[in-house]
Amino acid sequence: MPAQFADYADLIAATDLAAIANPAQIPDAYLLGRAGRVEAHYIPFDYVNPAARVVVVGISPGFVQWKNAVRAAQQGLRDGLPLPDLLRAAKYTGAFSGAIRPNLVALLDHIGLQRWLGIASCATLFGADAHLMHVTGALRQPIFVDGKNYNGANPNMVTTPLLQEQLLAYFGQEAAQLSGAVFVPLGPKVSQALSWLARRGMLDEARILHGIPHPSGANAERIAYFLGRKTKAALSSRTNGGQIDADRLALGEKMTALGMAPLR
């Protein structure tokens, strides 16, 4: 049975976060599974927004997110918050902070998702229209490889048994509650994982919006080209403009099939 907050509430309340400076120091009681170099640990990310119309999917929460979520849950326990409010606060503490948020908003607005949602801009998904969005990871629990944050590439999440189990037990169950939403995978590894789940009947491939560049600040050139802020001739050799064009075309066709306005 998937791990649930009720099983970890006492542990979370008693955890001394000041004594935990890296993943190796996370208490063993949080450990969900280990296979060689790979470990999965519990994080209080149980909250699911079943009313969401758009689901933004990253790879996996990292160590900083683990600490922030546990800290938010501890505060919620001290304040006596109702469980749904506590879990929501833990899930969304610091979500998409820094350069990622404006990049993500620009990308989602560029493809016209705000018009499909009936809002002025996807910026309000982080405020007044937060009820329309759910944020999660293909691997909902933190994954550490050799004591470092998992990067989605090594090992392959769709061929590694422990990671397959995590995909099915957590994101797969979330997706089943979000059948009316569209899914925005952040990056090709997440796209691959979502399609793997779709082939197993966990979600509808037609509702996965593949091809949007990852909004990380390190991906600035791909983002600029996707948004039309940089010409193909000006791209460096590291950026495949032809592939981005093909991704945009496929994305536009999928959005049209879903009744969305075509890409600009």
Structure, described:
With 264 residues, the chain is an alpha/beta fold. It has nine helices and seven strands, in the order αβββααααβββαβααα. A hairpin with a 2-residue loop joins strand 5 and strand 6. The model has no long low-confidence stretch (mean pLDDT 94). Helix 2 runs antiparallel to helix 3. Helix content is 38%, strand content 11%. It starts with 8 loop residues before the first helix and ends in a 7-residue tail after the last helix. The strands form two sheets. A four-stranded antiparallel beta sheet has the order 1-2-5-6, covered by helices on one side. A three-stranded parallel beta sheet has the order 4-3-7.
Supply database-style keywords.
264 residues; 7 strands; alpha/beta; single chain; 11% strand
Give a nutshell description of this structure.
The protein is α/β, with parallel strands linked by helices and 264 residues long. Helix content is 38%, strand content 11%. The protein has a four-stranded antiparallel sheet with strand order 1-2-5-6, with helices on one face.
Using the alpha-carbon principal axes, give the shape.
globular
Query: How much of the residues is beta strand, in percent?
Result: 5-15%
Average pLDDT for all residues: 94
Most strands sheet: 4 strands, antiparallel
Compressed to H and E, one letter per element, the order equals HEEEHHHHEEEHEHHH
> Stretches where pLDDT falls below 50 for ≥5 residues?
none
Rg, rounded, reads 19 Å
What class do helices, strands and sheet pairing give?
A: alpha/beta
Q: Based on DSSP secondary structure assignment, what is the total number of beta strands?
A: 7
Number of helices: 9
Helix content: 25-40%
How is the largest sheet built, in terms of strand order?
1-2-5-6
Q: What is the straight-line distance between the termini?
A: 45 Å
